[in-house]
Write a structure and sequence with these properties.
It is elongated, with a radius of gyration of 45 Å. The protein has helices at about 10-15, 40-50, 55-70, 105-115, 130-140, 160-175, 200-210, 235-255, 315-325, 415-435, 440-445; strands at about 5-10, 35-40, 80-85, 120-125, 180-185, 190-195, 220-225, 225-230, 260, 265-270, 275-280, 285-290, 305-310, 350, 355-365, 365-370, 375-380, 385-390, 400-410. The chain folds into 2 domains: about 5-160, 3-Layer(aba) Sandwich (Rossmann fold); about 180-445, Immunoglobulins (Immunoglobulin-like), CATH 2.60.40. The strands form 5 sheets. The chain has a 6-stranded mixed β-sheet, with no helix packed on it. The chain has a 4-stranded parallel β-sheet with strand order 3-2-1-4. The protein has a 3-stranded antiparallel β-sheet with strand order 5-10-16, with no helix packed on it. Strand 7 (about 220-225) and strand 8 (about 225-230) form a beta hairpin. By secondary structure, it is of the alpha+beta class. Helix 7 packs across helix 8.
């Protein structure tokens, strides 16, 4: 009894990664009779596309497979030949449940079409692709089941070997240059700073009411060698003082509650020292970096209820007593507690608006350098803002770019008012200290 013709169809994956066709026999594929190789048209087309692949190994294997197929239009193994198949009628892929955009579906559609056009023959699909095998089983396509490993031996790729060597040289070259970065002083790239909320009319009135409280009445007394009496113009002076506080308060509030003090450090994680390092910080439009520490605000002094009414020698005694106080309570501190930024050739310097530059002659390998702190004035109070930076070194590779995040946390209104009062109340405290205690007053008056 004559057996049915048997055809084995290799897919593109097998032709690229499997053994050469001439080395594959029926026993290797678990078949009981000789077969012929059947190459469907879509496999040849896909192999031709692979000859232009970006991967040199795929490109080389595709060219080799096409070259062998061209030479094998005759006996390929003991009793196998290579035949090429192209459907006589165009396949309606969508109607038959195939996706024409997928090469696997096209190959399987052509295999099934060959079976319909040649019903007297058996056709077997040979693939190393697991996904291809799963879909073929669902569609009822017979699969070859190899009894041995039929993957091609991993050949030495001279081009890939050269690429690996070049990549190693590039990595070695990169390690010969510094790896610089800019972070905050604690080593992080985020920081939280405290700012004041918006000054409201209610806050202004609360501060004005507190600093504008009048002193208690005072009878004529002998004090520090002089006679002190109530100032008849005290109410007028106090009202004028409160008005001046209201006028000065917006500027004082802004200066005191819209300044953030930031300190940075340059790090070098490489094994090579960085030389002539320059770090440029790009600030948002609503952030300004003043070149010098904000000046002491011109705040009005609260008037005293008492005035000197006698003994001309008393004023110099009072002045001497007040100047001897340590520290004098009427001296208002600067708004920032940090030291002013030193503008030097290697410190931070303002080159153009919105740009702060730092320079360091060197940053040693695997070390960091602490940079001088800078005070920033915030003209808007967003939840957060970014500071972009660029780092250059004379022996570096290009420009290192990045950004740091500054989060702004608003204090409560009561906390902000308390800080404002701490700036304004010392004058009030001086007036209180100038008043004698009640027991001493009675004795001196007698």
């Amino acid at each position: 009894m004559e057996s049915r013709p048997l055809y084995v169809t290799p897919d593109t994956n097998f032709l690229l990664h499997g053994k050469p066709l001439e080395e594959v026999t029926p026993s290797i594929l678990g078949l009981d009779r000789p077969f012929s190789w059947l190459l469907v048209d879509s496999v040849v087309d896909e192999l031709d596309e692979k000859t232009h692949h970006t991967n040199n190994r795929i490109k080389r294997r595709a060219r080799s497979a096409l070259s062998r197929l061209e030479d094998q239009e005759g006996p390929a193994s003991s009793s196998a030949v290579v035949e090429f198949f192209k459907p006589a009628v165009p396949i309606r892929y969508a109607d038959e449940g195939f996706d024409p955009a997928k090469n696997d579906d096209i190959i399987q559609a052509e295999v099934m079409t060959f079976g319909r056009e040649r019903p007297e023959a058996d056709v077997v699909l040979l693939t190393l692709d697991i996904g291809m095998r799963l879909k073929a089983r669902r569609r009822g396509i017979r699969l070859a089941v190899p009894t041995v490993d039929i993957q091609a031996a991993e050949e030495v790729d001279e081009v890939e070997r050269e690429n690996r060597h070049l990549r190693a040289r590039v990595a070695e070259f990169e390690n010969a240059h510094p790896n610089l970065d800019l972070v905050f002083l604690d080593g992080s790239n985020e920081i939280e700073c405290q700012v004041f909320p918006t000054l409201s009319p209610d806050a202004v009135e609360r501060i004005a009411a507190t600093v504008g409280k009048p002193e208690r009445d005072l009878d004529a007394v002998n004090f520090m060698g002089g006679i002190w009496r109530d100032d008849p113009r005290y109410d007028e002076k106090l009202a004028s003082y409160v008005d001046k506080v209201r006028l000065a308060l917006p500027d004082l509030w802004r200066r005191h509650g819209a300044l953030v003090h930031l300190a940075f450090k340059l790090t070098n994680d490489a094994d090579v020292e960085a030389t002539n390092v320059r770090a440029d910080l790009k600030l948002p439009p609503f952030v300004r970096a003043p070149e010098r520490r904000p000046e002491k605000p011109g705040l009005p002094r609260k008037p005293s209820r008492i005035v000197l009414a006698g003994n001309p020698n008393a004023p110099w005694r009072l002045a001497a007593a007040l100047s001897a106080a340590s520290p004098p309570k009427f001296t208002l501190p600067y708004l920032t507690t940090a030291q002013p930024v030193q503008i030097t050739s290697w410190g931070p310097s303002l080159r153009v608006t919105g740009l702060v530059s730092y320079g360091e002659p060197m940053v040693r390998q695997r070390r960091s350098v602490t940079l001088d702190a800078v005070t920033l004035e915030i003209h808007q109070i967003p939840p957060a803002f970014s500071i972009g930076y660029e780092i250059r070194a004379s022996n570096g590779m290009g420009v290192k770019t990045g950004s740091l995040l500054v989060r702004l946390r608003q204090t409560s209104l009561d906390e902000a008012i308390g800080e404002m009062l701490s700036e304004l109340l010392p004058t009030d405290e001086i007036a209180k200290e100038m008043l004698p205690n009640e027991a001493g007053d009675d004795e001196e008056a007698q």
